[in-house]
């Protein structure tokens, strides 16, 4: 093991090395879940679900499945290692995005999400359900989506029943009920909302520093793009699908 890449509510991700190659290995354990306060979750259930989902996906901008195994009460999911940084890391380093670049990144993101939402070969239609800066990576000009721990197949009642036992994707006293409602939805609207949150957050280092202001007052963007963001967030109507949102974005993307 080369070191930790990160840790979340349900598991940790380590950088591992074998036969001259690096991999990302996500580790689930009941001990870790209990430490995080997730007494109702079983590590083996989370591990099996994410393993099944990753085995079904084949896309160059999504980490490929490599292997899965258990060892001493730990459940390990091995995936391709992605070079680069998460958008969260870049924002913390002071990376500053202007409207044109944000549109560019959003176009790449929605293209990937649209792929997830469409069934193809052995891959069912999937919703990621946890789109945020820390789950999106950039390697030069390539954008990747990572961490499918909250993903589930669309229109899958058994999967929905299982996920309902799990805590919200994000909690806290500063989070509104409407935010939690959208984050914990089981439809394509959850991913569209997540893409909207990512879009607003990408302006973090170019926004007005007065955090008491609403995001629409803090960031300076064109009216058509602001309307699109509002629709992604569900505050000014909704897009019927990810493809619908993507087509609207392309129409205003210069």
What's the arrangement of secondary structure elements?
Elements: E1 3-7, E2 12-18, E3 21-29, H1 30-35, H2 43-56, E4 65-71, E5 74-80, E6 85-86, H3 87-92, H4 99-117, E7 126-127, E8 136-139, E9 142-145, E10 152-153, H5 157-163, H6 177-183, H7 188-201, H8 215-218, H9 223-232, H10 242-252
Antiparallel strand pairs: 1-2, 2-3, 3-5, 4-5, 6-8, 7-10, 8-9
Helix pairs in contact: 4-7, 4-10, 7-9, 9-10
What can you tell me about this protein's structure?
- This protein has 254 residues and is α+β, with helices and mostly antiparallel strands.
- It has ten helices and ten strands.
- It has two domains: 78 residues, Phosphorylase Kinase, domain 1 (2-Layer Sandwich); 168 residues, Transferase(Phosphotransferase), domain 1.
- Helix content is 39%, strand content 19%.
CATH architecture of the largest domain: Orthogonal Bundle
Q: CATH homologous superfamily of the largest domain?
A: Transferase(Phosphotransferase) domain 1
**Which percent bin holds the helix content?**
25-40%
**What is the domain total for the residues?**
2
Helices and strands, in order, run as EEEHHEEEHHEEEEHHHHHH
Q: Please list the strands of the largest sheet in the order they lie side by side.
A: 1-2-3-5-4
Shape: globular
| Low-pLDDT regions | 157-174
Taking the alpha carbons of the first and last residues, their distance comes to: 45 Å
């Amino acid at each position: 093991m080369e070191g930790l890449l990160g840790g979340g509510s349900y598991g940790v991700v380590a950088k591992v090395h074998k036969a001259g190659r690096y991999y990302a290995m996500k580790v689930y354990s009941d001990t870790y879940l209990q430490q995080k306060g997730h007494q109702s979750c079983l590590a083996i259930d989370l591990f099996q679900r994410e393993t099944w989902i990753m085995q079904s996906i084949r896309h160059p901008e999504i980490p490929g499945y490599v292997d899965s195994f258990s060892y001493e009460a730990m459940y390990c999911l091995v995936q391709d290692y992605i070079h680069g940084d998460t958008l969260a890391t870049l924002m913390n380093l002071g990376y500053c995005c202007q409207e044109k670049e944000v549109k560019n990144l959003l176009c790449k993101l929605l293209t990937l999400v649209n792929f997830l939402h469409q069934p193809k070969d052995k891959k069912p239609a999937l919703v990621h359900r946890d789109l945020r800066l820390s789950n999106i990576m950039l390697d030069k000009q390539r954008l990747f989506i990572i961490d499918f721990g909250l993903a589930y197949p669309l229109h899958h009642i058994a999967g929905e029943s299982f996920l309902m036992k799990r805590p919200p994707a994000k909690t806290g006293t500063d989070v509104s009920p409407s935010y939690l409602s959208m984050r914990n939805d089981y439809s394509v609207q959850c991913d569209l909302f997540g893409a909207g949150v990512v879009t607003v957050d990408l302006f973090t280092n170019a926004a007005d520093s007065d955090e008491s202001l609403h995001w629409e007052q803090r960031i300076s963007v064109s009216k058509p793009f602001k309307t699109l963001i509002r629709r992604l967030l569900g505050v000014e109507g909704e897009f019927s699908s990810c493809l619908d949102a993507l087509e609207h974005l392309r129409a205003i993307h210069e």
